[in-house]
Design a protein that fits this description.
25% helix; 2 helices; 71 residues; single chain; three-stranded antiparallel beta sheet; alpha+beta
Length: 71
Amino acid sequence: QAVIDAKDRMARDARYKLIRIPGRRGPLHRLYDVVADPQQREDLSGRGLEAEAVLRRHLDAYEAPMPVQPR
């Protein structure tokens, strides 16, 4: 499980890509506008863009524990 937890995660839509990088003090986030900046050189994270909030929620939902279904 530790190896899986250490892997980067990514979520994207048609324009933006958010990368979540695990760290000892919490995850780091990088947000790129892949339409305007296809080489992903300018990190847009922390600028209050709605796309970052939406993509973070998608990653949070993906990483949330799955409920155990009774058999």
